[in-house]
UniProtKB/TrEMBL annotation:
InterPro entries per record: Oligpept_transpt, OPT
Name used for this protein in its record: Sexual differentiation process isp4
A GO CC term attached to the entry: membrane
Region spans: Disordered: 1-38
Organism annotation: Hyphodiscus hymeniophilus
UniProt KW Transmembrane helix keyword: yes
């Protein structure tokens, strides 16, 4: 992405004539009450940026092109603030803690369900608003107690703080998965204290690392976090002046209700709408068509040319309306290439692919053939202490994987190293601050006692520091507007990291996790380094790289024969990095909604700790009561151990990585892919330097393309083309040719569609899909064809 279109270096800075801007720069901020309250002398004349939302202000000619991150965040989101709005209310804590409990418990329960859904920030946002408005309306404001419980209208900062607290809690801690595996397959839990503290530690360690990297991954305007734009749009629409947002709010609720009603069809009554395949309807007896054109069921096919009418699957991992066009086009190149790669590997019978399912993530025995698939019996290769016995592997044989799964491992490994190289070559200036703190002066400061009295740092900025922030053209205008708020000292995040690190290494030793002390140090180093590179990519592009198999592979080579060590190493790397991404995303959400940094820190800290505790309690309850079902192959319609079984299987597979993936082994290209990834971006960068006028060389992101080459190895794929069609319409046609409508409606419509779909999915799961005990499936008919809803040929071995 390009550098922002213009900079503001002083109080009368204005954009050049050729740099059209949708907002104005007001040199006299003191004329605006909302900008002058609480300002220090000498600072109140700093510029304020005001968003225009009226029909006249956002006329077609005034908006111009929305080319940069700054164009987006200052056009779609108001760049102003009212410091008098108070987020510290009883309602905020009550709703925040209530939704934290709801989200943490629900997410952990669904981790052990056959049908998994994810608690989304949009869902929490809509639910929090309904509760907040209800409390503001119905709680009497009589006396001191009444005013404490209901201080007035439900405000935007209360709303944002409650949502951020609940979002931090609504993650299923990967440590609970490892603990459940240890209980079910390795002889029992560690002691309760170790289990509780390792769960909190693994959730907070990423919080501490990402917090210390705010200067690199949060404050610059390039760090956009596109997923936040629909959420902030909804928050503004719900809380702005009703005369200003009346039409937008009405459209939001119309679309919300429309999607709530529509999703009954594909999700329950008419599942054929998940993926309509003309090819499968034309020939229902062709397995090649199933593999290539099918995809309306899990692990069915590539979904080529299928059309989906189910927003739940189209926007399952992020709405195409907010993901940047460059990210979408790069991923689309990888998507089409991945179809050719997967089909080519399977039908050329590479790695005996035809002897196994076209798509599966299980380990298979070498005795399998095209008519009889035999899963690998992992219990036959264990010693009594659950380490792997190499002699028993030689007797049992090395397991096999499907060709599509190997394609995913190869392309994702290449994508990992390609990401590092790509970020170095194209975004070095953006990420170098991640290690700029490593200086001799900072090293000396570690010897000073005052360094460790972090509680004495109040986060106040001097006038000179504020001026430097306002003059920095790389910083987010929303961050500049908040210059008078006390910043959360980085030492607070460092303290959270240090406490988590010490707790983690002690607990892993007490638990006899088999992860050595040096392995935990390596996990910390990997987490810090990868957070910088992959966190920057996630912030800029909206693309989050799935790092779990990479870390399980690295652990396999570092700790051969130790599946438990593999799982805990993955917990403190992959889980820590992912948690860091989400927490940075929510800090950007706080920044866009002008929530003070200290309030954001507090709400996230409370949410993380509270959510981790509830994750652990629910895991213990479920595993103790459903152990027999969780270790069974089939599970039931209510409970399933599929996720923990897969985690255990992968840990074992990577524990014998030298026999499977080393150079000379059957799947050697999985390891060699790392070297390929280092080399792939370089020719494109050279061409970019030689021919800078040809934008294609800088537009292509090889790390995204490589990862999407293996993207279709699992799940339901019938919605992918619909995803790209909608994304290109919003991010290309509307953004380029109808910027007025893009600004007013693109993110709002995306949010309404997400919210209506997710509310319906939540209710449907409990009411009819078996989430509350008994499933009530819709009767079979032409649009609800069991086992193959898209009418592709059904392979009975899939059953």
């Amino acid at each position: 992405m390009e550098r922002p279109g213009f900079a503001r270096h002083d109080t009368d800075a204005v954009p050049r004539e050729d740099e059209k801007t949708p907002y104005s720069v007001d040199a006299d901020a003191s004329s605006k009450d909302s900008m002058s309250k609480g300002r220090e002398v000498g600072v109140q004349d700093l510029p304020a940026y005001h968003y225009h939302d009226s029909e006249a202000a956002i006329g077609e000619g005034e908006i111009g092109n929305l080319d940069t991150a700054e164009d987006i965040v200052t056009t779609v989101i108001h760049v102003d603030d009212d410091p008098s709005i108070n987020p510290w209310t009883f309602r905020m804590f009550f709703i925040g803690l209530g939704l934290s409990a709801f989200g943490a418990v629900l997410q952990e329960i669904f981790y052990f369900k056959p049908q998994v859904i994810y608690v989304s920030v949009m869902f929490l946002t809509v639910l929090a608003h309904a509760i907040g408005e209800g409390m503001a309306h119905f709680i009497p404001r009589w006396g001191v107690v009444g005013r404490f419980l209901n201080p007035g209208p439900w405000n935007s900062k209360e709303h944002a703080a409650a949502v951020i607290m609940a979002s931090a809690a609504s993650q299923s801690a990967l440590s609970t998965e490892a603990l459940a595996v240890q209980k079910l397959f390795y002889g029992g839990y560690p002691n309760v204290a170790a289990g509780v503290f390792i769960t909190m530690s693994s959730q907070l360690i990423g919080f501490g690392i990402s917090g210390m990297l705010r200067k690199t991954l949060l404050w610059p305007v390039k760090m956009l976090y596109p997923a936040n734009l629909p959420i902030t749009t909804v928050l503004e629409t719900l809380h702005r002046d009703k005369s200003e947002t009346k039409k937008r709010l009405r459209v939001f609720w119309i679309i919300f209700v429309a999607l709530f009603c529509w999703e009954w069809l594909p999700e329950y009554i008419f599942p054929l709408l998940i993926g309509v395949s003309i090819f499968c309807l034309a020939d229902q007896h062709n397995l090649v068509f199933t593999n290539l054109f099918g995809g309306a069921q899990g692990n069915e096919g590539m979904g080529l040319f299928s059309i989906s009418f189910d927003w739940n699957y189209i926007a399952g991992f992020g709405s195409p309306l907010w993901l940047p066009l460059q990210t979408q086009l790069n991923s689309m190149i990888g998507y089409f290439g991945g179809i050719a790669l997967s089909i080519g590997l399977y039908y050329s019978n590479t790695w005996r692919s035809k002897d196994f399912p076209f798509m599966s993530q299980l380990l298979f025995d070498g005795s399998s053939n095209s008519t009889n698939w035999v899963t690998y019996n992992q219990t036959t290769i264990f010693n009594s202490d659950f380490t792997v016995n190499n002699d028993l592997i030689d007797t049992q044989g090395v397991p096999y994987l499907t060709g599509t799964y190997i394609a995913y491992l190869i392309t994702s490994n290449a994508g990992l190293t390609a990401t590092i190289v790509h970020m170095f070559l194209w975004n070095y200036q953006d990420i170098k601050l991640g290690w700029a703190w490593i200086t001799l002066d900072n090293a000396k400061s570690l010897l000073k006692p005052s360094t460790y009295t972090f509680w004495k740092n109040n986060g106040r900025r001097s006038p000179a520091e504020k001026q430097r922030i306002l003059e920095d053209p790389t910083l987010d205008p929303h961050y500049k507007v908040m210059v008078d708020y006390e910043e959360t000292p980085s030492s607070w995040y460092a303290a959270a990291f240090a406490a988590s690190w010490i707790t983690g290494i002690v607990c892993l030793y007490v638990m006899k996790s088999t992860l050595p002390w040096w392995g935990f140090i390596m996990a910390t180093i990997f987490t810090c380094v990868f957070t910088i590179f992959f966190g920057a990519q996630y912030a800029i592009t909206g693309f989050g790289f799935n790092l779990q198999p990479i870390f399980q592979m690295l652990a396999g080579y570092m700790f051969p024969g130790r599946p438990l060590a593999n799982m805990y190493f993955t917990t403190y790397t992959y889980s820590g990095i992912q948690q860091g991404w989400y927490l940075l995303r929510d800090l950007k959400l706080a920044q866009q909604n002008k929530l003070s940094p200290k309030c954001a820190f507090m709400t996230q800290m409370v949410g993380c700790i509270f959510g981790a505790l509830l994750n652990y309690v629910m895991m213990i309850t479920i595993v103790d009561n459903q152990a027999a079902i969780l270790v069974s192959v089939e599970g039931t319609s209510i409970w399933s151990g599929a996720n923990i079984q897969q985690f255990n299987t992968l840990a074992i597979a990577w524990s014998i990585a030298p026999k499977m993936f080393s150079v000379g082994a059957r799947y050697q290209w999985v390891t060699l892919a790392y070297l390929i990834g280092f080399a792939v971006p370089v020719p494109f960068y050279i061409m970019h330097r030689l021919r800078p006028q040809q934008a294609i060389w800088s537009y292509l992101n090889l790390s995204i393309i490589l990862w999407y080459l293996g993207y279709l190895f699992v799940g339901i794929n019938s919605s992918i083309l619909s995803y790209y069609a909608i994304g290109i319409f919003g991010q290309f046609y509307l953004r380029k040719y109808r910027p007025k409508y893009f600004v007013k409606w693109n993110y709002l419509v995306s949010a309404a569609m997400d919210g209506g779909t997710q509310v319906l999915l939540f209710l449907l799961t409990f009411a009819l899909a078996g989430g509350s005990g008994t499933a009530h499936p819709f009767p079979s008919w032409g649009g609800n064809h069991q086992n193959n809803v898209d009418y592709c040929m059904y392979n009975p071995l899939n059953g």
